[in-house]
Every structure is written in C-alpha cells, then in structure tokens.
Design a protein that fits this description.
single chain; about 450 residues; Rieske Iron-sulfur Protein; 2 domains; four-stranded antiparallel β-sheet; 19 strands
Length: about 450
Amino acid sequence: MLSPEQNELLCRVGPGTPMGNLMRQYWIPAVRSDELPLPDSDPVRVRLLGENLIAFRDTSGRPALVANNCPHRGASLFFGRNEQGGLRCVYHGWKFDAEGTCVDMPNEPAESDFKSKVTLAAYPCYERNGIIWAYLGPRSTPPPLPDLEANMLSGHTVSTIQRECNWMQGLEGELDTVHFAFLHFGHARLDNTPPGTHNYYQVKQQSARFTVLDTDVGVSAGASRPAEEDTTYWRITHMLFPFYAMVPTGVLGYQARFFAYVPMDDEHTLNWEVYGDLPTDEKASDELLIEANVNPAGRRGGTPQDECYPNTTDWYGRFRLKPNASNDYQIDREAQRSNKIYTGIASVRVQDVAVTDSMGPILDRTVEHLGTTDALIIRARRRLMAAARALADQGITPPGVDQPEVYRQRSGGVVLPREVDWWHSTEALRQRFSPTAAR
C-alpha cells in the first residue's frame, strides 16, 4: 500500500505537479486525426493534463493545439472562426496561427504594433498515422516521437474511450495481467479448452508466478505457468513511460499494439488502443494462432471501437461509452448466472472499465492489500514516483524521452523450455520491430 503522500504524487498530473511535469517531458497522444477531419473544420475542446485547450486544423491542414482563452479578454477560442490560416476570436477579431502568433488585430489602429507583442500559448503538434501528438513540455525543440511501432505502420487501428477514473487506475488494470483468467475468461472450463494451448494453461492454473525487471523505458514482467512436463507458458507485459502498456493478448512477436492512458485531468482519462497491421511475413500464421488459441482480441485486426455516444462539444464530451456507470455497464445477470459470460458484461474492454472505474475517481491506495501477482504494478509505481522526484529535485530527464528506439517492443504469450531464461531467450521476438515502420 502507499502512503497518502505517495498516492498524491502518483495520481496528480495538473500543471506544476511532479507527475504532471514528468508527463510534459514526452509527446502525448492528444487528438484523433478524424476529430479534425478537414482543413478549417470545427475547433475541438480538449482537456489534457488538467488544461483546457482548443484543437484545430488550419487551412493548410496543419493541426494545432492552443490555449482555450484569448489573451485579450479571455473569451474562449472554441467559438473562434477557423479561417485563412488561423483561429480568429469572435469577440474582437484577434487572429492566431498554429504557433500562437497573432497575425491580425483589427480592433487596433493600423499604425499600432501591439499585435507583435501578444502571443497565444500554443503547443507543438505532429500528426502520425491517425494520431495528433502534442508536446506540452519546456524544450524549445521537442524530443523525438517514441518509436511505438503500432503508430508507425501505414495500416493501423486507433480506438479510444473516455474513462471516469484516474489515469493510473487504467494503467494498473492493463499491468494486472493475471485478471484475464478471471474477469475475461472465468467462464472457461478445462474440459472444453483445447489441450496444449495458451488458454488451456491459464484455465488449468489461474494463478501465476511473476518475475519483474526494470528496463531502459519502464518495467517488464513475465508471468509463468506450467505448460507441458518440460515447458513453461510465459505471458510477457511491458509498462513504458509515462503511461503506456503492452499486454500479452496475442502470440509474442506477432503483433504491434499498445495502450495509452492519457490523463485529461486527475479524474478523467482518454484510453487509447493502437494496433498496427503488420506486413504478411510478420504476422502469425493461422496455424500458430489456432495452436496458441489466443484471446480473439489479440488476433489480426485489433480491437474494434466500443460503442460510444456521438461526441459532443463539452470538455468531457469525447468518446463516452454507452455502457457506463449509470446503466451498470449493461450487465446481464442471467448471462452471469448461466456462466455464459463470467462478469455478465459483454465487451472485454468494458469489463476492464467497470472494475477500474468502480474504484472511484482516485483509488485510495492506502487501504489496499497487494499480493505477489501485483509485482508489476508495485514496481511500475515505484519507478514512476522515483522518476518524478528525480526530475523535480535534480532535473534528471525521465526514461525514454530522448531514446525513441527503446519503445521498440512487442508483448505476448510464449511457451519456452523450462530451463531457459525467459527474458534473454525472447529478445528476438520482443524486439521484432518491423522494417516497414517509418519514423
């Protein structure tokens, strides 16, 4: 369990907080490309790391992310006219380009040079394969984007949902891989699970032994279960700074996929899932998928977008799930009683949402009781808090900021001879970065 001070350090991400300052060192997934479909399309309200911001795409198609309030009298630029290469405040006509430069100030006399003295807070943006990334940090020249393979492939699936909980609860839910045998697969029975498959080993033994180690960009874990007499089934998971997870839903080495838990603020999170479509010669064969009998969500094609309400224009109007707390996540008690669905909740991702959001907006970690299967969560918390303190106290750059290549990882399940070292023996599979991924 954590102390109250540690829980605050871990969870609070607003401007000026140690964890918030850590996150501002990195590029952050901010807006989906399809939220700004066309040049000069409607501005979008974006809540990110406790700030109210406005996203827009200018006449040239360039994405931009700027402060909500006009620096003149504070009117919201959400109501601005997106036209001719900039966003114009409708209150007095001040117009700003994507860099925050004031390019027109029509209410001032023609001879005035006041517009050269006024700027709008604007954050650098970079668009890559369906995601508009933003850099909210202090550097005049941002660091490189992380080499997250799934976002670097031309074929990709981007799925997003809003979570009504603290970012760390969502991330911890991904790192808690032992829950798959219960929350998602608790209805399975050994007598109808194909012997010798990944699922068979999980059903046969729901508990697992965790081995955890620090990496250049976070923490990785191998969860082991007995397979055959001379083999072990390993599920390999990665936590990557500052809020990414790669989970073992497929066959190790044959999928490019990551989750991101991007804080909107302390109590709301935008949960991204990005799945890259690998070249044919990089994909798991049908025979291998059948042999592994992996979770269908880990097969080709990624996870589909869960059903959401149409986006609205308020600060919390983006990607809100239709199954939510107000309707008990559409739980079907009869399906639960009959063991058709262990939870009674149909969608795998909504199952995750239901349990982590039900902890409350910010979990009180001072009263929890963690066991051996929580080893990855414990280590990830320690690394994040240590990095936030090191940045705040000593100015030490957090892991991975200037090392985009350390994000070149894949996760998944694998069966290994019992005597081999799981980490070193899987290096080639874990780092099987596709040569078609473009920077």
